[in-house]
Write a structure and sequence with these properties.
Blueprint (H helix, E strand, L loop, with lengths): L3 E8 L5 E9 L1 H13 L3 E5 L12 H8 L26 H8 L4 H13 L2 E2 L7 H6 L7 E5 L4 E5 L4 E6 L15 H8 L11 H5 L16 H6 L20 H21 L3 E4 L11 E6 L16 E8 L5 E4 L6 E3 L4 E4 L4 E10 L2 E6 L1
Parallel strand pairs: 4-5, 8-9, 9-10, 12-15
Antiparallel strand pairs: 1-2, 1-3, 5-6, 6-7, 10-14, 11-13, 14-15
């Protein structure tokens, strides 16, 4: 008979499991060993399994136990009794929730206080008139509710909701009762008990209601306030002479206009205006230097003041002589004829003198 290795798993009467490897025995010899063990009341399991180094064999009981294991599944919910509560974390019962909900809101408390004054029982506002029936299905006589979409306040008269006011209750005025504004309440709280009303500004500012005099230096910040007054309304349009009846503001305006006009006159004596034509010559400076190559019509860009004289130097920058006409009609009178000749590369001077408003004398030198 062939000789083989066998692994024998033995469970004794006291439940101890052992594993024995029988090497190089014949089947007949193995049968005798199993028979002897059975007679001793020991459970024997013969398994032909190749032994793997570092691993041991498993009994059928162990295998059955392993196959009976399943993956752990966490329950979807827990009973409330499993959760520990403390002073900061507690459940609220249905009864407690009902008690909380059966409380007046802040607005309702304010409205209750208003009821003591107005005799009306103010309720929370609703969005539409239809909301009155659903929000307040059993109203009492005197309940008042503001409807936002209509901007109207309705009051229940015992039978139906009727209009009591257009819009919210307005603030009180000197002639009509109403709600007090926050500003009025603050002002009222700041008035001492028994205080009397002040006199009107008109009486206080009327000098006839006061006697005696007061030196300016005894008035706090009088000088600084006077120096800091802005010149609102100052006009610089008139350069007329200052008179004794003028206000300080009017006198300053006239003086500034005179200074501005004088400065313009003085500035005309300085500098030169360079041009390339005699048409619309500038009058800002007393001297005009014109470099031309052809004759043009002499004219001014703006009128001169009476007595002002404009000196015009004309340089012929062409290779041939130019015959320059001189105006002698309308506002101009020529003292040098109808025209003058300006030689090639030559110069002439033309003076324009204002002898009257928009009237000028022309003279060529």
């Amino acid at each position: 008979m062939a000789v083989k290795d066998y692994t024998v798993i033995i469970q004794s009467a006291d439940g101890v499991i052992s594993e024995t490897v029988l090497k190089s025995i014949s089947p007949s010899r193995l049968g005798q060993i199993l028979k002897d063990l059975a007679e001793k009341g020991q459970a024997v399991e013969l398994t032909k399994v190749d032994k793997i180094e570092g691993s041991s064999l498993m009994t059928q009981a162990q295998k059955d136990k392993l196959e009976g294991l399943v993956n752990y599944v966490h329950p979807a919910s827990h009973p409330a009794t499993m959760i520990s509560q403390d002073s900061n974390n507690r459940f609220v019962s249905d009864a407690e929730k009902a008690t909380y909900l059966d409380k007046y809101t802040k607005n309702e408390v304010d409205n209750k206080l208003s009821t003591l004054v107005t005799g009306l029982d103010w309720k929370e506002a609703v969005n539409t008139f239809a909301d009155l029936a659903t929000t307040y299905p059993n109203p009492d006589d005197g309940w008042s509710v503001y409807v936002k979409s209509e901007d109207i306040t309705y009051t229940f008269n015992g039978t139906a909701w009727v209009t009591s006011s257009q819009g919210d209750i307005p603030l009180a005025t000197t002639t009509t009762a109403g709600k007090m504004s926050a500003a009025d309440k603050t002002k009222l709280d700041g008035i001492a008990a028994g205080a009397t009303v002040n006199d009107t500004d008109g009486n206080l500012k009327n000098r006839a209601n006061h006697t005696g005099t007061q030196l300016a230096e005894t008035i706090s910040d009088f000088a600084a306030a006077s120096r800091g007054v802005v010149l609102a309304g100052l006009s610089l349009l008139s350069s007329a002479a200052i008179t004794a009846s003028d206000t300080i503001l009017s006198a300053l305006g006239k003086l500034q206009k005179q200074i501005t006009d004088l400065s313009a006159v003085v500035n005309r004596d300085k500098g030169v205006s360079n041009v390339s034509t005699l048409v619309s010559m500038p009058t800002a400076k007393r001297l005009v230097y014109a470099t031309v190559t052809a004759a043009t019509t002499l004219s001014l860009s703006a009128d001169l003041e009476v007595g002002d004289e404009l000196h015009v130097v004309v340089y012929n920058n062409s290779a041939s002589a130019i015959t320059q006409s001189l105006p002698n009609s309308g506002s101009f009178m020529s003292l040098s004829g109808a025209a003058i000749s300006i030689p090639a590369s030559g110069r002439v001077e033309i003076n324009v003198l204002c002898v009257a408003a928009t009237t000028y004398l022309i003279r060529a030198l």
